[in-house]
Each structure stands twice: as structure tokens, then as C-alpha cells.
Amino acid sequence: MENLLAHFLSQGVPVGEVNEIMEAFKFKKLGKGDYFVEEGKTSKQIAFVSKGMFQYFYAKDGKEITTYVSGANAFLASLLSFFRQQPSKEYIRALSDAEIWTLHFNDLDKLRKTNQAFRTFYIGALESLAVGMDETRSNLIILTAEERYATMVKHEPALIQQIPLQYLASILAVTPRHLSRIRRNFC
Question: Residue 14's Cα: distance from chain center in Å?
Fold first, then answer.
């Protein structure tokens, strides 16, 4: 809970208003391999990761296509499924034993309407998310695989060390063999 509290306080949520927000979150443990979201099921929760690592992926033609890996002190959500309340097209799976703080869709909706500090936090988080998604999309189009890898090393060095090679390759849209060459040549 301390990580979640610290996160809200670091984002400018006043101490006096953070208690109502914290009360809406529920603690949950997941084991390695457990799913937070599954394809075909509607996501009813978002979560803050206190401990653990999660893989976002799609299943296509019997293969997993990893799009993102998230670690501690980050929010976890199948955005399309959660915000539209429709069946998910992706999976989110724990890559390690994990501890998360979940927020149900109805509780988020209530906080958005009744808590000004949460609403301000929420808008900022959505703006940050939109910018990150746009940057990722443009990086896939504009940057070479080597440049995408260098960007990840610069912005997420700890995460790069923890992500299994096959997932990192999928995120970068290269084969594991090509990623090995990139890493070997990286200065």
C-alpha cells in the first residue's frame, strides 16, 4: 500500500484527499502465470502493481505477440476492454508472483465524479498514457530496431534487464535472433 500511496502523493494528490482514493483499492496476490485479463472477457478492474512483472500479449495463429511488459509502480489495464466495458482482445499475465491493488470500474467512475484530486490525477494519467502510446506507435514506424532498442535502454534500463529475450524481441518487432545481434553490436 505504501507504493500506491507514494505514487498518488508524488502526483500531487493532497494528503487530505488521498484516503478516499486509497479506500477504493483492494489488495490482491497473483501467482506466476496467473491472468489479470484474458481475451474474450471484459476487464472490470485496473490495478497498481506493487510487486511483480506483467506481460501484455495477443494470441494470433497459435503464437503470442508481446506488446508490452510492465513492472512495479505502474498501472495495469487492458484499456480498450476496461474503458469501453467490452471483451478484451489481449491477455495480461503475471510473469512472476505479484501483488497488486485493484480498482473496480464502478469505483473509478465514482471517484472521477466525486473527488476533484482524483479527477485531476486521472486526466494527467490519461494524457501521459496517450502521449506514450503515440510515441510508441511513431517509434515503430520511424525508428529502426536498433534505435528502438537504444530508446528502451535509455528510458527503461531496469525493465530491459528483467524482460525475457523473446518478449523484448516481440515488443521491438524483431526476431529473438535479430535482437541478439542488436544487443551484441550495442555500445
Answer: 25
- pTM, two decimals, is 0.86
For residue 101, the tally of other CB atoms under 10 A from its CB is 23
- Residue 178 vs residue 11, higher pLDDT: 178
Give the tens place of pLDDT for each residue, 21-51: 999 999 999 999 999 999 999 999 999 999 9
State pLDDT tens for residues 3-22. Answer: 888 888 888 888 888 888 99
Domain 2-115 has CATH 1.20.120.450: no
| Domain boundaries of the chain, sorted by first residue | 2-115
CA 119 to chain centre: 20
Please give, one letter per residue, the 3-state secondary structure of the chain.
Answer: CHHHHHHHHHCCCCHHHHHHHHHHCEEEEECCCCEEECCCCECCEEEEEEECCEEEEEEECCEEEEEEEECCCCEECCHHHHHHCCECCCEEEECCCEEEEEEEHHHHHHHHHHCHHHHHHHHHHHHHHHHHHHHHHHHHHHCCHHHHHHHHHHHCHHHHHHCCHHHHHHHHCCCHHHHHHHHHHCC
